[in-house]
Specification:
Blueprint lengths: L1 H11 L5 H39 L6 E5 L8 H8 L5 E16 L2 E10 L3 H4 L2 H4 E4 L11 E6 H7 L9 E5 L14 E12 L4 H4 L2 E5 H8 L8 E6 L5 H12 L3 E5 H4 L1 H39 L1 H9 L4 H37 L22 H25 L4
Parallel strand pairs: 3-8, 5-7
Antiparallel strand pairs: 1-9, 1-10, 2-3, 2-6, 2-9, 4-7, 5-8, 6-7
Helix pairs in contact: 1-13, 2-11, 2-13, 2-14, 11-13, 11-14, 13-14
Length: 405
């Protein structure tokens, strides 16, 4: 195509005025820097999403079954036993999650406690989450119910494994309440602290704790077999998606089966929203950088006025001459965009595998000491799409200001 060849020649040839050369380089560099920033920032968001997922997976089961309506599952024990018969399932355990008040002497803190059974160690790696002490959900050998406290609860109340005997209070679910005796509106259970749990996630480390399922049911006046959820472990070589589909088909519409991502849908949705809002903001910066291309083309039109006149005398139409500058604008945008993609991709991959940019602070007190980064193909495609849109906008604007040529 003749217009494309002429546009490429205009773009690569040395200009008669040095200022035009400088502005052209600045235009390409502006688009390249903006594009590289988009690639890097999106990759960093991917890294932080992976970091959150890796920590959440320490305490989240592969699949969780909850009732579609209501709060509890009746006959959860027998249902969990039948779930274990599904191909790909290695373990299933009913659990009971509720809120309460943990008191030790004059100190107290609101907690979220989960009732679990000894099978919990088959659902998640309990050894990986224990910062001190040991996981224990069997009441045998204890005068009180064994409990494992999140590190935040332990720190706020000064509780230590093997030494502390706090009281857990929950409101009574059944029976009448005597206004003259407010304390009678609560049930209490003495706990024996056997371990400290730490997974480096604030929402867990601040107020969570584990207690035996039987004690949780007794405190909350739940019948034997009732639970708020059934937690399921999937075999390592099994397809979790296939197992989820089979489990949902077996249980029917009365239950909801959620994988690890769906168990924290709101958290992941917020990360995705922040990521793409940032993408839109950086895309606007890219559009602003493209205005430098418009100014470059304006100077190019002035400089190449004699050449355009020659082309017109040789039979070129006005539309052909306009296409030359339209294509030149698109080529400048594409060149800057491709250079930025390569630069951003190089930086992101270097950080992903080289881990050379580190976070400030004491590494011993931090979960990670380097910026987490993961390059994703869909992000690169999104960046290429926005470059194509900006190139189209540049061409359109160029067509408007060259309409009198």
């Amino acid at each position: 195509m003749l217009s494309l060849r002429i546009a490429a020649r205009y773009l690569l040839s040395r200009k008669s005025h040095a200022a035009v050369n400088v502005i052209s380089v600045i235009s390409v560099a502006g688009v390249a820097v903006a594009t590289a920033a988009i690639v890097v920032v999106l990759s960093v968001f991917n890294g932080f999403a992976d970091l959150a997922a890796s920590h959440l997976s320490l305490v989240d089961p592969d699949l969780m079954v909850t009732p579609a309506a209501g709060k509890t599952i009746a006959q959860a024990d027998s249902l969990a036993a039948s779930i274990e018969g599904i191909d790909g399932v290695t373990a299933a355990m009913p659990s009971l999650t509720e809120r309460g008040l943990l008191v030790d002497d004059s100190r107290q803190v609101a907690v979220v406690f989960k009732g679990v059974t000894p099978r919990y160690s088959r659902i998640i790696d309990t050894g990986a989450i224990m910062a001190a002490g040991a996981f224990e959900s069997d009441t045998t050998g204890y005068g009180e119910a064994p409990a494992q406290l999140a590190v935040g609860v332990s720190s706020r109340l000064g509780l230590r494994p093997g030494l502390s005997r706090p009281e857990l209070y929950v409101p009574r679910r059944t029976g009448r309440i005597n206004p003259a005796n407010p304390a009678g509106a609560f049930r209490s259970q003495t706990l024996a602290v056997t371990g400290i749990v730490q997974i480096d996630q604030m929402e867990y480390d601040a107020d969570h704790m584990l207690v035996p399922l039987a004690d949780a049911r007794a405190m909350l006046d739940y019948y034997d077999g009732e639970a708020t959820a059934i937690e399921v472990a999937v075999a390592d070589k099994a397809d979790a998606g296939r197992v989820k589909h089979a489990l949902q088909h077996t249980l029917g519409d009365g239950f909801v089966v959620a994988d690890r991502v769906e168990q924290h849908a709101e958290s992941y949705r917020m990360i995705a929203i922040e990521k793409w809002v940032t993408f839109v903001m950086l895309a606007f910066i890219l559009v602003i950088a493209a205005f430098n291309i418009i100014s470059t083309l304006s100077l190019m039109v002035i400089e190449k006025r004699d050449n355009m006149a020659t082309l017109r005398f040789m039979g070129a139409t006005r539309g052909m001459v306009r296409r030359v500058f339209m294509l030149q604008g698109a080529m400048i945008t594409a060149a800057g965009g491709l250079a930025g993609c390569v630069l951003g991709l190089g930086l992101a991959l270097a950080q992903q595998y080289g881990r050379f940019i580190r976070l400030g602070g004491d590494p011993s007190q931090m979960t990670i000491d380097v910026y987490p980064v993961r390059v994703e193909a869909t992000d690169i495609l999104a960046v290429m799409l926005i470059i194509a849109v900006v190139a189209a906008i540049t061409s359109l604007v160029t067509r408007i200001f060259t309409r009198h040529i």
